[in-house]
Design brief:
The chain is α+β, with helices and mostly antiparallel strands. Helix content is 32%, strand content 33%. Strand 1 and strand 2 form a beta hairpin. Helix 1 packs parallel to helix 3.
Length: 202
């Protein structure tokens, strides 16, 4: 299973000429690819569409069109429009919607799902970097620890994250202070796997 996250950021939501940024991340199972880009002038919705389109194009570039893929975003509007559940009535969004649907149709087994904003922290951070002019692309090799441990990250704000481990345990990580509530960090003062995992994906 390949998992992806996308998000768009806008300096002045509602202003069609606002500065925007886009970000998306792709977990191939072996690597985590993170991309931040300046999104040009537009609205938050055009930024969201550009982020999704960029993610789909990168997946095609990587030759992953035959793989099982799940893409997550926190824009219910964009996801329901691309999935054909809602109509697109905004003229400036129709070309983006059509392009995203065309790209989606090139994949054998791809689904796009909505998630809460706090569960889309990776892409949110990347889109804000793009908005601030920090365009970058990085690929991090996943460690055996990451491959064997499917953790869910929920951003609380100000560098604080909730981590739900594959065993169901919930820990709180303060990335600013490099502190985790897990025993490995609290009692042995080690940089635990939860801190290392968040560093690798955020």
């Amino acid at each position: 299973m390949i998992r992806c996250w996308f998000d768009g950021a806008c300096a002045d939501n509602g202003n069609i000429n606002a500065e925007t940024g886009i970000g998306f991340a792709i977990d191939t199972g072996e690597d985590i690819i993170k991309i931040s880009r300046y999104g040009g002038k537009g609205t938050n919705n055009t930024a969201e569409y550009k982020a999704l389109i960029g993610c789909l194009e990168k997946l095609l570039e990587l030759g992953l069109d035959e793989k099982e893929i799940e893409i997550y975003g926190d824009s219910n509007l964009i996801i329901k429009q691309v999935n054909g559940e809602w109509k697109c009535n905004k003229e400036h969004l129709i070309p983006f919607k059509n392009h995203a649907q065309q790209l989606k149709g090139l994949f054998a087994n791809l689904t796009i799902k909505w998630v809460k904003r706090e569960k889309n922290q990776i892409a949110d951070n990347l889109s804000k970097k793009g908005l601030n002019g920090k365009e970058e692309e990085s690929k991090v090799k996943k460690s055996n620890e990451q491959e064997s441990s499917k953790m869910e990250i929920i951003g609380v704000g100000d560098g604080i994250y909730k981590v739900i481990s594959d065993s169901g345990n919930v820990y709180v990580v303060d990335l600013n202070r490099q502190v985790c509530s897990c025993p490995d960090n609290q009692y042995r003062h080690n940089e635990c796997k939860h801190i290392r995992y968040i560093k690798s994906v955020v």
